[in-house]
Amino acid sequence: MSLNSVICDLFGIEVPIVLAGMGEASTPALAAAVSNAGGLGIIGAAATGPNGLVKLIAETRRLTDRPFGVDTLLPASARRRGAGPGQGGMPDLTPYQRFTSEFIEKQGLTPPVPRDFKALAPDRDGPMIFTKEFFEAQMEVIIEQKVPVYAAGLGDPAPWIDRLRANGTRVMAVIGKVVHANRVAQSGVDVIVAQGHDAGGHNSPIGTMALVPQVVDAVDVPVLAAGGIIDGRGVAAAMMLGAAGAWVGTAFLATEEAGIYDFQKQALIDSSEADTTISRALTGKPARMIKNRWTEAWEEAEIEPLPMPFQSIVAAPAMAAGIRARRADILPGFAGQGAGAIREVRPAAEVLRDLVHDAEAVLKSASTFI
Ligand SMILES: Cc1cc2nc3c(=O)[nH]c(=O)nc-3n(C[C@H](O)[C@H](O)[C@H](O)COP(=O)(O)O)c2cc1C
After folding, report:
1. 196 lines ligand 1 (CB under 6 A)
2. Closest CA to 332 of 321, 345, 344, 322
3. Which CATH superfamily is domain 6-93+122-273+342-361 in?
4. Residue 228 beta carbon below 6 angstroms from any ligand 1 atom
5. Which residues pair with 171 in a beta bridge?
6. Rounded to the nearest whole angstrom, what is the distance from the C-alpha of residue 94 to the centroid of ligand 1?
7. Best mutation site among 138, 192, 261, 334 for ligand 1, i.e. most ligand atoms within 8 A of its Cβ?
8. How far apart are CA 82 and CA 89, in angstroms?
9. pLDDT tens-digit profile of 182-191?
10. Mind listing the pLDDT tens digit for each residue in 282-309?
11. What backbone phi and psi angles, to 5 degrees, belong to 219?
12. From edge to edge, which strands make up the β-sheet containing 276-279?
């Protein structure tokens, strides 16, 4: 008897555990390692340009012949016409950029040169700013490449669903509220990821434990639970809440294959369960990350960060300078509240194996409570 659910047949996988799309962290190597070990690997492609995306998909196909997926963001705010540079919707960034320059100076960082910006997302060929055209170009690649699974990490993939499904692509959407679950269910997604407040990255105000059963009750499609699932007990608990499996991020960050810097993997190991914070200072949307001087500086200055997609332009020089200096107090990265349970960097296949094995063990012992 092994861990199983409806999503195993739906995706053609062995165990109902999905690697979360995590920007540059979810590399082809990480996605392939998870797929090869029986789960579903998802490539994180949020800020990857169309040419970079073609390469990521080819690399993943070289590393695995199992199903895999691609995750991008489709934020409604940035998809509205007029949000891009020169389209009239651009706010005056000057005072914000001055704040960034002062931060760089106060922190004793070296102002970044163009090559430092590349280190934010190596080989990803992404734009400086999210625009409607950028998202449309990404989606054309995803459709052309006939990927097995597509996940919308933010927003509703409705405009592309018919073309994706005609290719046989299974479509997922990540949501943080019941109202959004209902919306993407109506759009025809195959699977909904209910991502709660505990999660790393863009974030819901509702805790995972409360969110998952309410989403399960609201929709007729399988639901994956996300947020704070760090070991097999979390996977088992998610399934007891009615989820068909887990979408796991932070637990796969401290792996050899994850595309984050070694100093960021060390920051995960050094963090306790209380060392994350939610801030809009990086992307303009509330996101959970390890506490750092950049988010503290915004809180202290009491300045409201700009909305997505503009805040990333303001943050980029500080983040690039932080990476260049390998400063974990400047850019330790996104992480969930489960970070406190991470003790070491391991191969992803080992992390997946333990998630499955420990979930099976606690599910088998569940009847002892009756
Ligand atoms: C480093 C990092 C980057 C992330 N980037 C993305 C992303 O690009 N797209 C997305 O849909 N979600 C992103 N997320 C959220 C994850 O997909 C997932 O929902 C979350 O990690 C689950 O919570 P957990 O970290 O507690 O497992 C990111 C999370 C982390 C930790």
Report:
1. no
2. 322
3. Aldolase class I (3.20.20.70)
4. yes
5. 150
6. 30
7. 334
8. 5
9. 999 999 999 9
10. 999 999 999 999 999 999 999 999 998 8
11. -120, 165
12. 201-202, 287-290, 276-279
| 345 CA distance to ligand 1 middle (Å) | 18
What six digits make up the tokens of 164? Answer: 């994706």
What is the rounded distance in angstroms from the CA atom of residue 176 to the CA atom of residue 180?
A: 7
Task: Determine the average pLDDT of the residues in 339-344.
Answer: 98
User: Is the previous residue joined to 309 through a cis bond, with omega within 30 degrees of 0?
Assistant: yes
Q: Are 294 and 318 in contact (CB under 8 A)?
A: yes
Atom of ligand 1 at shortest range from CA of 174: 11
Contact 135, 53 (CB under 8 A): no
**Is there an atom of ligand 1 within 6 Å of 200 CB?**
yes
The answer to whether residues 298 and 305 touch, using CB atoms and an 8 Å cutoff, is: yes
The DSSP bridge pattern shows strands 41-44 and 17-19 to be: unpaired
Beta partners for 122? none
Tens digit of each residue's pLDDT (9 = 90 or more) over 348-358: 999 999 999 99
